Amino acid sequence: MTIQDSNFITILAPMITKLKLKGNELLVFALIHGFSQDGESRFKGSLRYLIEWTGLDKSTVIKLLKQLVDKQYINKFEYEKNKVRYCEYTSNYWVALEWLENPTTPRLENPTTPRLENPTTPRLENPTTPRLENPTTVVGKSDIIKIDDINTSFDNDNTGVKNPGLFPDEETKVEEPKEKKTLFRNSAVYKMVKFENGVGVDYSEFESKFATPEFEKVDLVYYFHSVSDWSDQKNMKRTKNGWLATVRNFIRGDVEKKKLHLKPEYKAPTQRLNVVGAIEYLKDDY
After folding, report:
1. Per-residue confidence (pLDDT) for residue 180, from 0 to 100
2. How big is the chain by its Cα radius of gyration, in Å?
3. The whole model's pTM is what?
4. For 90, which of 25, 36, 108, 187 could close a Cys bridge (C-beta 3.0–4.6 Å)?
5. Is 103 exposed, middle or buried (0-12, 13-18, 19+ CB in 10 A)?
6. Residues 138, 71 contacting (CB under 8 angstroms)
7. Packing angle between helix 147-156 and helix 58-70, nearest 10 degrees?
8. Is the pLDDT of residue 50 over 80?
């Protein structure tokens, strides 16, 4: 993947005003969001691709990716292929905005939270061991970011962050249990709707999650079933807040495509055929 003359990056105002991103961190986030904003795709580009866009060296780009993951602005997915570990990224844009607009909304646990080091054991570094990440080293030809490169860079980088083993007086944070990801039909969001004989009869609790002017005219029942079908077809699993964000993504995506599904009372009236008039017209002998 290389930069083409037709390529561009879209920077949305809330990325600056709400997420408080700036500089190269904003640029990297906007790049990843551009590839994954549909809620299905992932950024699978190489480090070289990010380096070409930002003009930064390899180790700096890796640091920026780690910062965005730590802030939970992007999600990291790891996998192994041919005994080589790789990672891909997706944007967490809409969910992050939800956190900031509604402070009472719990944050989703990042499934790729970095390993915790033993706070009682300081990490010893060998001052004679050369750094593995050389800003002048030519980047490899792999079209996918190797996770081993990223982990190695984090372990050997001296960023000035306090080592918990050297500061025992600082309070150690305890991680909350991770929220389980499920198919939509097995999620807490799906259970908000009451069914009788397989037919939804009460969507009020689900609709209450979208009680804002933005969604007032939207046919939420349609999008409830659209997300449910999509989850089944793609075998997609997410957390409760993740599914609510996905519904919003579906709606906002249709707004951009100008094919938003509205409630019946807000749909434009269709022209009806005047059956009686047509019959009278056919009876007349001209």
Report:
1. 86
2. 25
3. 0.39
4. 36
5. exposed
6. no
7. 90
8. yes
